[in-house]
Amino acid sequence: MKLNEKMEAALNEQINREFYSSFLYLSMSAYFERNNLKGFANWMNIQYKEETAHAMGLYGYIISRGGKVILKEIKKPEAEWENALEIFKAAKKHEEFITDSINSLMDLANELKEYATVNFLKWYVNEQVEEEENVTEIVDKLEMFGEVKQALYMLDNELAARVFTEPVITA
Prior knowledge:
Elements: H1 5-34, H2 38-64, H3 84-111, H4 115-145, H5 149-160
Helix pairs in contact: 1-2, 1-3, 2-5, 3-4
């Protein structure tokens, strides 16, 4: 059965949000590179790659259901922040926005009785729980550390150890 047109349009909007997320995290990574926080830059670069994979998962799903992918303009992300805590608070707020967006997609899929899409979106629902948990943990650490440079250095080393693993997006 072909993807419902309303669902297709909503999924295309989510592709745009995921690509914007990629650009936002890449911009955050660049900020950390400029400020010689290579571990933080690594963490954000991996987020960039994950968000790109999320967009491509939606892309593939639309295609697999006989839909049409329509790519839209991606707005320019911010490039300047005050410090690491401000960036991670912005990342947390953004992940909460994406969670709301995924939940809205799930609501629409249920309303339209697009059960294959409901099943597909479950992966994204679970992923958002992990995304919010990861960024919240770093916000909490940065708030606890305050301006202690040694703690920032240690966290930078911790974040440098993160490795990208291509997500397997399943329906």
